[in-house]
Specification:
Blueprint lengths: L6 H17 L4 H15 L7 H17 L4 H17 L4 H8 L2
Length: about 100
Amino acid sequence: MSDVDDVADGRRVVDETLHSMLAGTIPPYEGGWKVWETAFRLAPRSPDVMGPLWLLWGALTDWVEVKPDERAQAEAAMLRAAREWFELEPDDSVQRAWFEQ
């Protein structure tokens, strides 16, 4: 499990992982797990951003595990979520609003 304990470091890990997924240097499912574990660890310290990230990426990685025949669709959704994340201003209130869509 990720050893990131600081929310700022966790955001950096999440951003780097999502960039790597979009660049194709790490598979979406593998990157999704890294985002999930980072957000899971930090959810108590950042319930408004890391908490929803944990739930979102948990759902996306579970999709692959529960319905492996839909992996391509799940990974496409992961890449879409990563792209949308970077379209947001890096501001807690903007990111919270995105989760509520």
